[in-house]
Amino acid sequence: MAVIVTRDIETLLGKMRVGACEGALVFALWLTGEPERVERIIARTAGRCGAGAVLQGNSSLIDEAEVQIMEYLAGRRTIFELPIRLHGTDFQRHVWHVLTDINYGCATTYGMLALMAGCEGGSRAVGSAVGANPLHVIIPCHRVVEKSGRIGGYAGGGTVKFELLAREGKVVSVNAVPGRGFTRLIADAIPKVMG
């Protein structure tokens, strides 16, 4: 039976709990938001991957994840190169895959993400899938903002989401770029993001 090895890492923005199972990351969750959400995602992931236990421990994969997360937060990394295994419904996994198409320094709205996922009018369903993302930062759900320009909710909390967006630039507009589905994050738009 599989075992998930987990370790908490301290980052510039707070603690994350990172878990690996059978050579792949299965979760990387901010501990700065809702603790019950973290526990739900860990329990659901353990059940879906057939893990008989979730144990604190050491893992070279978690060590590498920590290095890459720290590099990202320091502005020295824009793409993660880590083996991941996603455990969710087919729809959730599809949405999470589409999220990986949103490049560093870019953002989209829930409605546009629904279009990108082939689910026109499905922004609520897409929002639920985004909220269930088990790999915060690595699968960039922080790059999804509200149509109004507000940053919206985030499992790690609004402050962490704002800081992540600020590290990549600041949202000027979330109108779709023709043919792209997301906009460039530009440096001078805090009022639009926070308003």
From TrEMBL:
Q: Which UniProt keywords apply?
A: DNA damage, DNA repair, Methyltransferase, Transferase
Q: Which PROSITE patterns match?
A: MGMT
One protein family per Pfam = DNA_binding_1
Q: Which residues cross the membrane?
A: none
Give the enzyme's EC designation: 2.1.1.63
Q: Which InterPro entries match?
A: MethylDNA_cys_MeTrfase_AS (IPR001497), MethylDNA_cys_MeTrfase_DNA-bd (IPR014048), MethylDNA_cys_MeTrfase_DNAb (IPR036217), MGMT_N_sf (IPR036631), WH-like_DNA-bd_sf (IPR036388)
List, for all copies, the residue spans of the domain called Methylated-DNA-[protein]-cysteine S-methyltransferase DNA binding. 90-169
Q: Which reaction does it catalyse?
A: a 4-O-methyl-thymidine in DNA + L-cysteinyl-[protein] = a thymidine in DNA + S-methyl-L-cysteinyl-[protein]; a 6-O-methyl-2'-deoxyguanosine in DNA + L-cysteinyl-[protein] = S-methyl-L-cysteinyl-[protein] + a 2'-deoxyguanosine in DNA
Q: Name one GO molecular function term.
A: methylated-DNA-[protein]-cysteine S-methyltransferase activity
An individual GO BP term: DNA repair
The entry sums up its family as follows:
Belongs to the MGMT family.
Query: NCBIfam families in the record, alphabetically?
Result: ogt (TIGR00589)
Q: Know the name of this protein?
A: methylated-DNA--[protein]-cysteine S-methyltransferase
What species was this sequence derived from?
Sutterella wadsworthensis 2_1_59BFAA
Q: Which lineage? A: Bacteria, Pseudomonadati, Pseudomonadota, Betaproteobacteria, Burkholderiales
